[in-house]
Specification:
alpha/beta; 222 residues; eight-stranded mixed β-sheet; Rossmann fold
Length: 222
């Protein structure tokens, strides 16, 4: 499917699928959305610990990059697994240029390292961050409870409703340890009900720019 690069409201770029009129990140600001949803409402729950993160939709690598950059100041050891069925090309991630867009020391080299890391292998990117990229469809994913945090960053239910079902969220529930969390930009009632149906406790939280709400789901301790 055709993909093109477009600018978002905060000046950062994203990939757009013209045939679907869908973007990899919010047009209200790719960087702002990523920090709000996945750092402020997800990674902020963890400090001074080892955190095992599963990203459903590795996509452009932006969420992995900002998590890597946040790890040292939070004294986190992050083990990051990114699932992606259709990896972006080198030409695409180079043009997105998130390393320079973030204006943080060493971000460009880390962004390159994330994308250059081999698929299906564990790579130590920094002393605080290891990456395991897996080329796999969401529908084929299953895991024992071994993740603390899930970044659920699939395309929207409008264009891919099969990725927002009880079956998918059942697999997410099974992959989390008790007390583990899932964060997503989505806020639809049907998504919240699917999460609750498989056992999650679900919170509505303030959304990123352009969205009133987002969801955070927690697997109960018992």
């Amino acid at each position: 499917m055709k993909r093109r690069i477009v600018k978002t409201a905060d000046g950062s770029a994203t990939l757009q699928l013209p045939d679907w009129q869908e973007q990899y990140h919010s047009m209200h600001g790719a960087l702002q959305e990523a920090y709000h949803v996945f750092i402020s409402k997800g990674l902020d729950c963890y400090k001074n610990s080892t955190v095992r993160i599963l990203e459903m939709g590795f996509g452009t690598g932006l969420n992995a990059l900002i998590s890597l950059l946040e790890a040292p100041s939070r004294k986190l050891q992050i083990s990051y697994t990114g699932l992606e069925a259709y990896p972006v090309t080198e030409a695409e991630w180079t043009a997105l240029d998130y390393g320079n867009a973030l204006q943080k020391r060493d971000a460009p080299q880390y962004f390159r390292a994330l994308h250059k890391a081999p698929w299906e292998e564990v790579s130590q990117i920094t002393p605080f961050f290891e990456l395991h990229k897996k080329q796999q469809r969401f529908e084929d994913f299953s895991s024992t409870p071994c993740f603390d945090l899930i970044y659920f960053d699939a395309f929207g239910a409008r264009v891919q409703p099969d990725l927002w079902t009880e079956e998918i969220f059942g697999a997410m529930f099974a992959a989390l340890v008790p007390g583990g969390r899932l964060v997503t930009y989505a806020a639809k009632g049907s998504v919240r009900r699917a999460m609750q149906a498989v056992g999650f406790t679900v919170e509505r939280l303030p959304g990123p720019p352009g969205k009133r709400e987002m969801l955070r789901a927690t697997r109960p301790d018992a």
